[in-house]
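Review form for a predicted model. The reviewer records the input and the model, then writes brief findings.
Reviewer: anonymous (R2)
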Amino acid sequence: MFRFNLFLAIFMVVLFSGSVFGQFAFSGKKIAQTEKKEQTEFSLDQINFEPELTAPKIQTFSGKKKNPLVGALLSAVIPGLGQFYAGDYVSGSVYLSLELATYGGVFYYNKKGDDKTKQFKIYADEHWFLEKYYGYLITHYEENAQNPTMTFPQPDENGHYNLTDGQREFLREYEENNCGSGCSHRVLSESKDRNYYENIYKYYQFSEGWDDVEYPGVEGIALPPENQNSKSEHREIYKGMRNKANSFYSKANVMSFGFFATRLVSAVHAAIAIKNQNNFAMVFPSVLEHEGKFIQAATLQLRW
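Model under review:
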């Protein structure tokens, strides 16, 4: 009994000093004893504490340490996998759920952005026309060319210019090479790509292409370059649709950082958890032989 109390006192000092992790590992039916390289298990039913007690039979099995680096690498690949390796299925499930939630969020906001992008492109094709924008280039050319060599027809009742292929190619070359500061950006020399759909609302140079454009205080439709008096409700609606699409894509980008954050936190957590799992202190009842008799005792097991 004295030996039991002595071992127990040593264990309590170690436990409350915080230098090792203490753990009781026995129940009413079984007592678990973990060695540094092997773990043993035997049943209380096998032990007789009478003077004629015989030595208990002890079953051994492997209790090897796990590698913290392996756990960290597993969680860096798939968050939660390192926790599963350590045997912590609750934390592993939490990290894996966060990973799946991040995937879901990124997919959701990218899908919303794609849908809104399709919507604003359809809207632009319905309300912005190259045939109207030609008027801006024609006016700029006729007002700035010293010796005009190309003539153009008058627009129809909708302000559209019905041009020949040669006239359209002339305006394309003019916009790209000869328009100067009046054509800071281009649409005729490019396909309907991202820049096309950005330029038509972002720069006043392309105002004349909107079907509801108005010029308060300006007579007619002839305008100087970069005229900022133009008003178009359709352009403002289109601008709002583009901003909404960009907002969805921005949210998807922010959520994508969760992939790195979840992996980093999960990897660090897995490494620390496995290291702490490898380092422990445990006290358990045992039976020792003393002067030919078996007596009750306690054993303190440390591993680090």
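Findings: The mean pLDDT is 76.
Further findings: The longest helix spans residues 233-278.
Recommendation: see findings above.
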